[in-house]
Design goal:
- This protein is of the alpha/beta class.
- It has two domains: 261 residues, 3-Layer(aba) Sandwich (Rossmann fold), CATH 3.40.50.10540; 78 residues, formyl-coa transferase, domain 3, CATH 3.30.1540.10.
- Helices cover 40% and strands 12% of the residues.
- The chain contains 19 helices and twelve strands.
- A seven-stranded mixed sheet has the order 6-5-4-1-2-3-12, with helices on both faces. Strands 7-8-9 form a three-stranded antiparallel sheet, covered by helices on one side. It has a two-stranded antiparallel sheet with strand order 10-11.
- α1 packs across α8 and α8 packs across α9.
- The radius of gyration is 25 Å and the shape is elongated.
- The two termini are 28 Å apart.
Length: 396
């Protein structure tokens, strides 16, 4: 955990991946994140593998640096307790549709009346001004609708999902950025602020930065789709013993590559020396890389390309990434001891800013219920009563 943020108190009503990814980033940067869960817990707690249904791998890797309050928000007594928390909070974050938030009593309008200095951010599936504002959205749905699955099509043109929760995590990054912006605006003006970061729009914004391409202009100067990225020969190339990504980018890179590949005549070819001509012919140039690659082993290519400062990398499996020497140097996958799960391997935040404090591991369901409610001003007897009535949960 870093101390970049001055411990703003965050009430985290997020679930599954998108929202917890965003709130974990806030916790990593120094926020005091209170994860508010139903009595059954965030559904992603069960995303295995895991020793129990409460503490699966997916949950462990999305919820460090948080405290857990388990509470039945449908109960009338819960609303009063949540209101006490809101009164002392800096930020509320959620990834539900506005109608769902209103039913739970956590709409911006209601909460900002309780706390006029509240920063409030949320990520529904679709923007509130559009016709699909009330539609549900999950990662696969957004990958399909945003164009992401289409541009990841196989050789037969069949669309495919990326094998990562890409839409959720892209939207989660935008939600974290929105939270930082909302806190900054609140601190500057002293007034409540609400920032909406819809999942669909976030992924489309992310994708179309380069993929708008020719349609950037009116009338269009070509189709959508960034030409270089759409090249059929833009792919890892097969070497004698594996696969290699080679990325000559500048004129000098291409000239050095062709000299290394035994094609010195290409060093003066306009397809190499002129940037505009190179862009139009990039698929043919990538094909020439593919033709040369089988002549050497991956290690031989890495050494030769590295000597010439040509960007390249061997294709690694996920298991090989775990053993990557650079990641070992920077401690990317620390060995940890979780209070309830025992020995675990984590994946740390990528941020670095001087000396970092210790991270706290993902909490058990309701691990901090009593602590959080007492901090909000409830008495021990009040908390006991909520626990006895089954409104608030604590670990068994």
């Amino acid at each position: 955990m870093l101390d970049l943020l001055d411990r703003p108190r965050v009430l985290d009503f997020t679930t599954v991946v998108l929202g917890p990814y965003a709130s974990q980033i806030l916790g990593d940067l120094g926020a005091d994140v209170i994860k508010i869960e139903p009595l059954a817990g965030d559904i992603f707690r069960a995303a295995g593998p895991g020793h129990s249904a409460e503490m699966g791998a997916g949950y462990l890797n999305l919820n460090r640096n948080k405290r857990s309050l388990a509470i039945d928000m449908r109960a009338p007594e819960a609303r009063a307790a949540i209101d006490r928390l809101v009164a002392g909070a800096d930020l509320v974050i959620h990834n539900m549709r506005p109608a769902s938030a209103e039913r739970l009593g956590i709409s911006f309008e209601r909460l900002s009346a309780i706390n006029p200095r509240l920063a409030y951010v949320f990520a529904a599936g679709f923007g509130s001004e559009g016709r699909d504002a009330d539609e549900p959205a999950y990662d696969d749905v957004i990958q399909a609708r945003s164009g992401l699955a289409a541009i990841n099509a196989n050789a037969d043109g069949e669309p495919r999902f990326l094998k990562t929760i890409a839409a959720d995590k892209v939207a989660g990054l935008h939600l974290a950025i929105a939270a930082l912006g909302a806190l900054a605006k609140r601190d500057r003006t002293g007034a409540a602020v609400c920032v909406e970061t819809p999942m669909f729009e976030a992924v489309v914004s992310f994708l179309f930065t380069e993929q708008l391409a020719g349609h950037t202009f009116e009338p269009p100067l070509g189709s959508t789709g960034y030409h270089r990225l759409m090249s059929p020969n833009r792919r890892p190339h097969r070497t004698k013993d594996g696969f290699l990504a080679v990325m000559p980018y500048s004129t000098q890179h291409w000239q050095r590559f062709f000299e290394l590949a035994g094609r010195p005549e290409m060093a003066s070819d306009p397809r190499v020396t002129d940037a505009a001509t190179r862009s139009r012919n990039v698929d043919a140039l990538y094909a020439m890389i593919g033709e040369a690659m089988p002549e050497r082993t991956t290690a031989e290519w890495l050494a030769a390309l590295g000597e010439r400062d040509i960007p390249c990398a061997a294709v690694q499996s996920l298991d090989e990434v775990l053993e990557d020497p650079h990641l070992a140097d920077v401690g990317m996958f620390p060995a940890l001891t979780h209070p309830s799960e025992g020995a675990v391997r984590g994946v740390r935040s990528p941020f670095r800013a001087g000396e970092a404090g210790s991270d706290t591991q993902a909490p058990r369901l309701g691990q901090h219920s009593r602590e959080v409610l007492l901090e909000a001003g409830l008495g021990e007897a009040e908390v006991d009563a909520l626990v006895e009535k089954g409104v608030v949960g604590e670990p068994g």
